[in-house]
Design a protein that fits this description.
This protein has about 220 residues and is an alpha/beta fold. It contains nine helices and five strands; from the N terminus they run H-E-E-H-E-H-H-E-E-H-H-H-H-H. The C terminus is likely disordered.
Amino acid sequence: MRVRPTFDEESHLIRQGYQRIAGIDEVGRGPLAGPLIAAAVILPPDLDTPWLSLVRDSKQLTANMRARLFPLIGEAAAAIGIGSCPHKIIDAIGIAQATRFAMSAAIAHLYLHPDFLLIDYVKLPKIAIPQKSIVKGDSLCISIACASIIAKVARDRSMIGAERRFEGYGFAHNKGYATREHLDALLRLGPCAIHRRTFAPVRACLCDTHSPARLPADGL
């Protein structure tokens, strides 16, 4: 049975005197192409609105439901920050460090400075803000779940835009994940400019001398 995220973590922290509690999550660790995007969301301590009952981990929602909730979260949140780690940096520093990079950028882009961080699974030891890492936090904690929706919609929009620049890979549908459609296109066309070259299926294509590399001059 799917768990509904709650305000329990935030309420506990509010009772301790914290007010600006940021939930943080990322989307895009697994894809073969495109950026990793993180979001940080600070919800008002007294937020009470019917749509909160619809919020779930973004992976449990349809695209239509995420699109419906995205502006509602944006309007209700006290602050939202979005951070991106592009494919080149992912290749340079690895996916774990890239996750911290994007999350740190999301925190830096918040309009309000948070006084506590609730983070889905990851720890950010270089950020001097009190924090708690929660396993499956996007399923348990409402502010982290909201962050997961913001990050997911932002990344999906980025990949839909990439489809217009790099036709043939199906980015608008597969969002860069290793679907059969994407893998077939990768074998047929070779990697494009936004593919992550350290990820095994892409690396295998680069090692194949028979596979062309589609690298436009204006690639990211």
